[in-house]
């Protein structure tokens, strides 16, 4: 974690399961930060505001629901939002609220999977958000045991939705995904170790001891994406980290992360991140940081 990034000390105490706070505001003014707790953030009436989660940057709509995992940098910026009655409800809960042994039980499988995905940040669709919007708004009025049950119910609804969008690239967030295939894991491990060098389909197919055609089908069936997209995600994740943590010229970063020319890097970066590498670096500039 970059030492110049604000580590927030949340109001959640070790004696409580979670905390919830709601406010109406005219703008977003809290800097880019991280904390050890999980966070559910519901935002209403902030169309045009900017969301920064890990290495993801995007503009939000009228309603926003995000689950942020522990130690994942995040913030919202006013950007082009003109509404002066922004409603924000935040729920924070301990990362060990649910014991690992409990999470391994069949009935909590989907919640466990959601928590793993939250390491990259999860954006929920408006349809899913509408299912829990009222319950999130009323959570603060509940007390004791029943408030914990309600939180678990909200988490269950979110975990079983089929429209989660992962926001930050896995390589940026240092997420080690597990697969039900040792061959795939060997290939992913190889990509993470050699992303800065040219890597061909034939090369990784050999590592998997398969033909190129068979490997392509096998890899996509086990990961849900192509080998080329996986390699691109890894390279862009490392590039994003370099843009934030170093002052290296963008051209040097592109070359160091396996891109053969800066034009190609800029095009692919903007297509995936919806901004140029220069704009991305500026969004993570000193204006978003608190030096401590």
Q: How many β-strand runs?
A: 11
Which structural class do you get from the secondary structure elements?
alpha+beta
The name of the CATH superfamily of the largest domain reads: Regulatory protein AraC
Strand order of the largest sheet: 2-9-4-7-10-11
Characterize the largest beta sheet: strand count, sense, and whether it forms a barrel: 6 strands, antiparallel
* CA-atom Rg in angstroms: 20 Å
Mind explaining what this structure looks like?
With 292 residues, the chain is of the alpha+beta class. It is built from 11 helices and 11 strands. The chain has helices spanning 100-103, 109-117, 126-139, 144-159, 182-194, 201-207, 212-223, 227-245, 250-256, 262-273, 277-283, and strands spanning 6-7, 18-25, 33-34, 38-44, 50-53, 56-59, 63-68, 74-77, 86-93, 122-123, 165-166. Helix 2 packs across helix 4 (144-159), helix 3 (126-139) runs antiparallel to helix 4 and helix 6 packs across helix 7. The longest helix is centred in the C-terminal third of the chain and has 19 residues, at 227-245.
Give a concise summary:
The chain is an alpha+beta fold and 292 residues long.
Describe this protein with a few key phrases:
globular, 6-stranded antiparallel beta sheet, Jelly Rolls, 2 domains, Arc Repressor Mutant, subunit A, alpha+beta, about 290 residues
Write the layout of secondary structure elements.
Layout (H helix, E strand, L loop, with lengths): L5 E2 L10 E8 L7 E2 L3 E7 L5 E4 L2 E4 L3 E6 L5 E4 L8 E8 L6 H4 L5 H9 L4 E2 L2 H14 L4 H16 L5 E2 L15 H13 L6 H7 L4 H12 L3 H19 L4 H7 L5 H12 L3 H7 L9
Parallel strand pairs: 1-3
Antiparallel strand pairs: 2-9, 4-7, 4-9, 5-6, 5-8, 7-10, 10-11
Helix pairs in contact: 2-4, 3-4, 6-7
